[in-house]
């Protein structure tokens, strides 16, 4: 490994790429810096910056703060900022981060900056580079994937907000020997952002779905079929919706809404998650709002999601299960092509610490129905 610089925090020289240039900040950056730092997305997720961010903060940042900005290679306009500091010089590990101004988004700016900074770190003796993102920061997580960083898990209490309270952060890392290009996605995005058969529409769960999800999950029949059966907490439901995109990008689970294709009205939810470490099986679960039951929506949604999971995700097998008395849900699975595989006694946690039986179903690629 190359000798580590004695006081490395950021490159002091410009690092050019085809998309961006990383360079030291200049006094002319202050107006753009002021506007960008007060953007709602930057202010929410970059808690190291004061909020609100003032002109004095911008001057101080330029003269004594970060030593690198992301700039347009043609106009030299500030597009964001990037940072790097050693985590452990003895181990050759560094931590990086970046944020992108509103006018720089949607152009691959963040991924290019992270890639350039990671490459610079590797050539300066850091053979491991990590990035920590807020669980709800799907934009930052997409940048991490495109820059070739790999999801490693959630670090409990690794972050501290402006209020002084600790919160979890999602860890991503890239080693010097990792292959070039974006890191692989275990759960790709839906093609075109949605699935539809003309009657039902499947879209990813987002923060704006919190109200509909809380209403659905609070129904007595929903509580009864939840594992374990507990009344939902409003804060927990909001967090689930806010962090759903991040979980999807990380490859942990895919939470989706079921909608009326004609009106876009919320009709229910459906989701997939891996059954356990080292397993390639995806578990399917769903629930419908009362006005949409008995109309074939659950079967249609399950068919759409199952076909995507088996053909696009590449899962070799899907699983689902119901309580023995939930005959309606069993019929949905059978109509979607699932086959009943067994009866598992005391398989699932029930109410008040008890256990309930489970009727298990499975679907293989060859079982797909037209």
Automatic annotation (TrEMBL):
Q: Where is the N-acetyltransferase domain?
A: 20-176, 200-370
Q: Which InterPro entries match?
A: Acyl_CoA_acyltransferase, GNAT_dom, Ribosomal_N-acetyltransferase
Q: Which domain of life is it from?
A: Bacteria
Q: Which residues cross the membrane?
A: none
Question: Which Pfam family, giving just one, matches this sequence?
Answer: Acetyltransf_3
Q: Which SUPFAM superfamilies match?
A: Acyl-CoA N-acyltransferases (Nat)
The record's listing under PROSITE patterns reads: GNAT
Q: Which PANTHER family match?
A: ACETYLTRANSFERASE, RIBOSOMAL-PROTEIN-SERINE ACETYLTRANSFERASE
Q: What is this protein called?
A: N-acetyltransferase domain-containing protein
Q: Which organism is it from?
A: Rugosimonospora acidiphila
């Amino acid at each position: 490994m190359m000798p580590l610089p004695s006081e490395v925090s950021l490159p002091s020289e410009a690092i050019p790429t085809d998309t961006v240039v990383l360079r030291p900040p200049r006094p002319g950056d202050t107006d753009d810096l002021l506007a960008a730092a007060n953007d709602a997305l930057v202010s929410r997720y970059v808690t190291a910056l004061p909020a609100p961010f003032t002109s004095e903060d911008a001057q101080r940042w330029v003269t004594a703060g970060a030593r690198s900005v992301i700039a347009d290679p043609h106009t030299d306009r500030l597009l964001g900022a990037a940072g790097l500091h050693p985590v452990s010089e003895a181990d050759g590990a560094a931590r990086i981060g970046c944020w992108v101004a509103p006018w720089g988004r949607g152009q691959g700016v963040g991924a290019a900056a992270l890639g350039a900074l990671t490459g610079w770190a590797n050539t300066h003796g850091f053979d491991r580079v990590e990035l920590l993102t807020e669980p709800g920061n799907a934009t930052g997580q997409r940048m991490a994937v495109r820059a070739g960083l790999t999801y490693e898990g959630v670090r409990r209490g690794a972050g501290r907000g402006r209020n002084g309270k600790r919160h979890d952060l999602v860890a991503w890392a890239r080693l010097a020997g990792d292959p070039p290009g974006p890191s692989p996605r275990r759960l790709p995005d839906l093609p075109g952002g949605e699935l539809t058969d003309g009657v039902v529409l499947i879209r990813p769960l987002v923060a704006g779905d919190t109200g509909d999800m809380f209403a659905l999950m609070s129904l007595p029949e929903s509580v009864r079929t939840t594992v374990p059966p507990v009344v939902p907490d409003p804060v927990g439901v909001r967090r689930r919706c806010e962090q759903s995109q991040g979980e999807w990008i990380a490859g942990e689970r895919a939470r989706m809404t079921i909608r009326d294709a004609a009106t876009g009205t919320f009709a229910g939810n459906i989701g997939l998650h891996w059954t356990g470490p080292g397993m390639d099986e995806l578990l399917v679960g769903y629930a419908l709002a009362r006005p949409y039951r008995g109309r074939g929506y659950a079967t249609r949604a399950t068919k759409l999601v199952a076909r995507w999971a088996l053909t696009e995700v590449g899962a070799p097998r899907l699983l689902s299960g119901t309580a023995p008395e939930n005959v309606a849900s069993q019929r949905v699975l059978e109509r979607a092509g699932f086959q009943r595989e067994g009866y598992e006694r005391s398989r699932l946690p029930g109410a008040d610490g008890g256990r309930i039986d489970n009727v298990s179903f499975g679907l293989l690629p060859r079982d797909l129905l037209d």
